[in-house]
Every structure is written in structure tokens, then in C-alpha cells.
């Protein structure tokens, strides 16, 4: 496996290790070219204290997490950090950890028996260069092919859409990906969500670009949530380059004492202090 082309990009990989979720080997190999943060999490009912869950299941979860870290390291990933969290709200946790760890994308896992082609659904020209740069890093050392996909609701929008997907292809080529691995497609469809899901069925991974600051509000409460649930493929959501301060301050609501441990095994007290006014 080739060494990472850039260490500027990091991907958050949430894994419900106690729920039996695993990372497909195809995904491990594909993401070995980028730094990753493995987030072992377990969502628990509100009536159960996170400290109680950590005391009862922490050792088992840590063992599973270390085994998963070894899998990534054995695949050639030279930068693997880990977090362990027992939480009452996994989506808030994903958002907070992505911000804490400066992750540029979040990978929602699904089975991936093969990983040969990637569909990138783009909604506009927001962050095209940024998305292409991250994809260029991800594609290092792989033979993955990429299709930029744009849905239009009216034929009069086709020229602009064609220009958009070609611009995206140009940006990815500028990120050192061979042009013959890059494709562009524009589809006329009344329902963008259904069109994307139909196209995703012909590929092995779906990539979505975020166009709002909040991961939680856009990724998990807007169209991408429906897409992530509707596809059987892994879904990579690339965060925007921005995060509004008021959005960031909201991300820790209700997360005090959630049992968050970083690489050194110590509980992350920062979230607790913010929640308790410390």
C-alpha cells in the first residue's frame, strides 16, 4: 500500500463494536492511504448512565477497538487514532468527535463485498476543489473509478450541470487521478434522492458533499440521512471547510459523562467541563 499523499485529510470511522459491526476488508484497504480516527461507540438508553455502561462493557469494547486498529495498521495505514464512547446520542457524538479530531469526512459503514467504483453526488459548486483533493488522497494506491453525478429537475439546467460535473472531474484530475478513471453523469429526474439511490446501486460506495456547517443537521437530518439509510453501500460524507461557532458550541449538548476515551485510555473531560459550565 502506498504511503499517504497528504496528511491533511482525516476520516472518522464510527463502529458499533459491541453491536457486532465490523469494517469490511475492502474498506480497510481503500482507506489505508488516509489518516483515520476509529470511533468505537455504543448508544445506550437514556436511563442507563454512561459511566455504568463503561464500567460494564469498557474492557470488551477497548479490546475490540485495539483489534480494529491493528487491522488498519497491518493494511499500511500509518496514522490511526482511536476514541471509545458510550453515548445517549450517537449522532451528536459523531459530530463532536469529527470536530475534536479535525476529521474532514465521516464514513457510514455498510457491507462492501467489493470496492471498485465510487459515485460522488454533487449538489452544487460548493467545495468542489476540497472534495476532489480529499478524493485524490483517498484514491492513492487504489484502482477505484469515480463518477461525478448531478441530478437536474429541468432540461434547461443541463448545460450548467454538464459544466459542473466536468469541473469536478478536472479538479480530481488536478489531484493526480488519471482521467480515464474519472467519469461524469447528469440525470434528469424529479426526485434527486431516488435518482442518487438508483445510481448508487450501480456503484460500491457513495460520496456526499456537505453544504451546511453542521454535520448533524445536514448529514443526519436532511437528504443525506435518507440516502445513507437507503443505500446498501458505505457512505462517505465529506464535511465542509467551515463550521459556525454557534453550531460547534451546540454539539456537546447532553454529552457530559458520555464515557469518551481517547488513545491514551483517559476519559475526555473537555466535553464534561463544557456541559457542567467548567
From TrEMBL:
It holds the Pfam family Usp. Residues 240-278 are annotated as: Disordered. Residues 149-239 form the UspA domain. InterPro entries: UspA (IPR006016). Residues 243-266 have a biased composition (Acidic residues). Residues 267-278 have a biased composition (Basic and acidic residues). This is Nucleotide-binding universal stress protein, UspA family. The lineage of its organism: Archaea, Methanobacteriati, Methanobacteriota, Stenosarchaea group, Halobacteria.
